[in-house]
Amino acid sequence: MTFAHPWMLLGALAAFIPLLIHLFDRRRPRPHPFGPLAFVLRSQKRTASRLKLKRLLLYTLRTLILLALPVALARPELKQDTAAATVVKGPAATAIVLDASLSMRWSDGTSLFERGRDEARDALADLRPEEPATVLVCTGSALPPAAPGFDRSKLRQLIDEAQPTYGAADLSRCLDLAARSLEESPMAGKRLVVVSDLTAGSMRLEAPTPTVKGPTGEAVRPEVVLRDAANGKDALPNHALVDLKVEPALQAGPRAFLFTFTVKNFSDQPLKDLEAAVRVGESTVGKGFVDVPANGTAQKSLTVRFQQGGTVVGQGTLTPDGLAEDDRRAFVLAVPRPLKALVVNGSPHATRYRDEAFFMEAALSAPGSPVQVAVRDTAAGWREDLAGYDLVYLLNVTAPEEADAAKLRTFVENGGGLFISVGDHVDPEAYNTRLGALLPRNLRLVRTSVERDDPDADGKAAKLAQVKVEHPLFAPFTGRAEEGLVGARFYRYMLLEADGSGATQGASQVLATYEDGAPAVAVARRGKGRVALFTSTVDRDWSDFPIRTSFLPLMQRFAAYLAGSLEEREEQKVRVGETLSLRPEGSQTVSVVKAPDGAEVPHKAQPDGTVLVGPVEQPGNFSVLGADGNAVPALAFAATLDPAESDLSRLPQDALSAHFGEETVKASSSDAERPPVPLWTWLIVAAALAFFFEGTLLRK
User: Fold this and answer.
1) Chain centroid, CA 555 distance in Å
2) pTM to 2 decimals?
3) pLDDT tens digit string along 606-630?
4) Residues 400, 408: contact at Cβ < 8 Å?
5) First CA to last CA across the chain, in angstroms?
6) For labelling, which of 12, 254, 472, 665 has a CA lying 20 to 30 Å from the CA of 142?
7) DSSP string across 332-370
8) Cβ neighbours of residue 149 under 8 Å, at least 6 residues apart?
């Protein structure tokens, strides 16, 4: 038995007061015989035994009152597992390691972490006064704890303030850190108390057991006490949304997306009609049901159509269970907004497939494309009001007049996108004169690699040699998809001047080159807009690229890039505990990064213009604020959980004993072992009842 306030036991000395009063009342007066009173004395003898019993009961009740109250104030508590915590090895410096991993959030009404904190408090209270202690809250980035000391209130505060994380925690590493701290104590005995749910992912049993240096420098294994926060449960049933894949559903429209849920069942019971839903804010925009076999995996696909374009922040969710945190997965999705494109056809043809704009119009108008195309010849094109368009395509167009060139410059500088492809109608000198301020690089001359009707044209034609697949424009064209680019043959193309020869508003980027190093695709920013220059034709006059499989997706990506929405389509993802590199575009800046709970996340600008964010400590959607304090939707990102933490299968007891040794103490203060009402409460009740009966006897 232990006492929370042992000094209150001094009040128990008051229990001697009734005894002293009883002894004082036992003094008898000297008898004086008086004959007339003899008959009264005979009457008193008949009631003497009853009065004696009453006085004895009063004495007992008063003693109980004066004894029970101070003992109750001393807060006694029976400790059935104290012997287990201290074993028979005598006093020891103790390190208490509290598991704070994601799995400790599992709850059946009371979370494992709450139970774990109770276990840690009990372990601290079990220590003898002469035993120093320290506490380590084990997280993925745990630091070495302080040397063992005797400030129990500080250690208890550390336990009380501990919170579970959303990541994995390596208990093996934490035990090593705790063992190192024990070496700072001169006490010979060493003890490690591990408070954990003891799931399979919490500890590496293949790693060596922790040791400390003995008095002569030899490695000594400390005593290990395992406190099971799960109270010996055989299983912790759980299901999780381990992956959420989002991809355009082109067959359903330009703003339709396919959400594919991958659901894992980590329990021995099959799951029926598990709800899978796509939520945006408080609204459910898609819902279905999925069955998952025992210890199996299943997928569910939902098609969602969004009414408007822009950045959509939401999450996929499952019916929650004991570990609700892994039943949802955040996403940030850039839904394409409708784009209006003016295609100026510089070389119309009566035969449709020989028309300059035929392949471009087909690519931009393909199912799933957000581009609305208006095709005009040169004369009609320059009469259009460019303010009503997002994109302008000049396909083999003769150089515009100065007034039209000025109108085009204003369009781009105000944020419009301009695509230029060359051909027989393009005069390099005229273009440089009229559009030199917009071109990524000045035009030089046309180069012929081979005549198209040459029998060896396929072998002699130029091909793309270097493509910057790290740029968002060409990011999908890797692996087998690259063949559609490098397999294209170019019979003629326009050579360009060196960088900076004509452009005065910023350097250009060459994203693709031919085998001789000549640029094939060059891009540049002009004011708020973007310009892309393709140095061959988009019909079959100078190349066979328009009939290659990569032509359609590349032209659609050109549209998204020139409209400034391509980067938004590249979803940024990061796992909890990792860092993320954001790449602001143009005038975008990063002033604040906010977590889902509103807390600010550390970030640091890098020399290459990127911003390093993290480490990220919680799952969900993160927002990024610019210099003006407003959100920058294009930089928002989602953080997800490590699916490995969703596996809550338990470590076998025999494996733990084999790892730590047969002398390992398995202590637990489960609810079944704790008295439902504290002992001091019953003492107060007993004192109240004694006071009631004492008053009742006095009234009789």
Assistant:
1) 36
2) 0.67
3) 998 899 998 999 999 999 999 889 9
4) yes
5) 39
6) 665
7) EEEEPPPEEEEEEESS--SSGGGSTTHHHHHHHTSTT--
8) 132, 133, 134, 155
